[in-house]
Specification:
Blueprint lengths: L6 H12 L3 E4 L3 H6 L6 H15 L5 E4 L1 H5 L3 H16 L3 E8 L3 H12 L9 E4 L9 H10 L2 E7 L6 H4 L9 H12 L9 E5 L6 H4 L10 E4 L11 H5 L6 E5 L1 H4 L5 H19 L3
Parallel strand pairs: 1-2, 1-8, 2-3, 3-4, 4-5, 5-6, 6-7, 7-8
Helix pairs in contact: 3-5, 3-13, 6-7
């Protein structure tokens, strides 16, 4: 199987055509209950199938949270495999939210799990944690480059606890978060129209970027959780990301999923969020 077109190019096209929005697939117990589903394999499968049916042919990115499937064991992972395959077949890019991070052969195995085209869970991109050192991510970065897939590195996350690590200063005075973005900027050098190596930067961090000494322009995508239930709005994006706002992929999960299991309501909610983002970033 030949390598795919680089993820950054595919993502840029999907965002331009479908709107810059990533919708999570987060079947946690409370949401399954709100949909009238059991907290079991049947409920999980119904939830995943409905979300993919409603959104995979119209949103740019779907982001399954692996943990919510893994908690059901091998049968849950089988549901995840089917959801990933069906979403990609319908035209959505799939970002696996696994937040893996390790060293050596273990990191290579994680990379192969999600970024090897022959793997059952093959996705267009995966989230990773760099806090064993950015260099420990090299197996995933190299495989992504070879296979045309993408990697999103945690940099400045939307949870308040993240600041104790991400805002910490190195001996050279740079914050840990700024250092991660520097690495990604180098990975994306000379990529067009957009690099394949992204960062996770929370949309709720209006003052956090300045506090961490961060320039969010990395030449690649910026996954921005926090829109909707966490309190950020599309209108906040230009204030947080400045000139890099066109490369932002806002992530909405509960804000859309709470409208299920009605397929039309899920579609209407996603379309509304996408339109709000287009207007906010000036691409509407």
């Amino acid at each position: 199987m030949p390598p795919l077109e680089p993820f950054g190019a595919r993502l840029r096209r999907a965002m331009d055509e479908r709107g810059p929005l990533c919708v999570g697939i987060d079947p946690h117990a409370a949401l399954l209950s709100a949909w009238g589903l059991g907290d079991d394999i049947a409920g999980l499968e119904r939830f995943a199938r409905t979300t993919v049916e409603a959104l995979a042919d119209r949103v740019a990115v779907l982001k399954p949270q692996s943990a919510f499937f893994e908690r059901f064991g091998s049968r849950g992972v089988a549901v995840l495999e089917r959801a990933v395959a069906d979403a990609r077949a319908a035209g959505a890019l799939v970002l696996m939210d696994a937040k893996r991070g390790d060293i050596g052969s273990t990191m290579a195995a994680y990379a192969e799990t999600y970024l090897d085209p022959a793997a059952p869970l093959f996705s267009d991109a995966v989230t990773v944690s760099p806090y064993l050192g950015y260099g420990a991510l090299r197996p995933a970065l190299d495989l992504a480059r070879a296979s045309g897939t993408g990697v999103f590195v945690l940099a400045l996350t939307s949870n308040p606890e993240g600041a104790e690590v991400q805002h910490a200063l190195r001996a050279d005075g740079r914050s840990v978060a700024a250092t991660m973005l520097d690495h990604l900027r180098a990975e994306n050098a000379d990529a067009a129209p957009m690099g394949s190596f992204g960062a996770v930067v929370g949309a709720t961090l209006a003052g956090g970027l300045t506090a961490a000494g961060v320039d969010p322009a990395i030449g690649g995508p910026l996954l921005a959780p926090g829109i909707g239930a966490q309190g950020a709005t599309a209108a906040d994006l230009p204030k947080v990301f400045g000139a890099a706002v066109r490369d932002v992929v806002p992530n909405v999960s509960r804000g859309v999923l709470r409208h299920g299991p009605d397929v039309s309501a899920l579609r209407e909610s996603a379309a509304r969020f996408a339109d709000e983002v287009r207007e906010a970033v000036g691409t509407g």
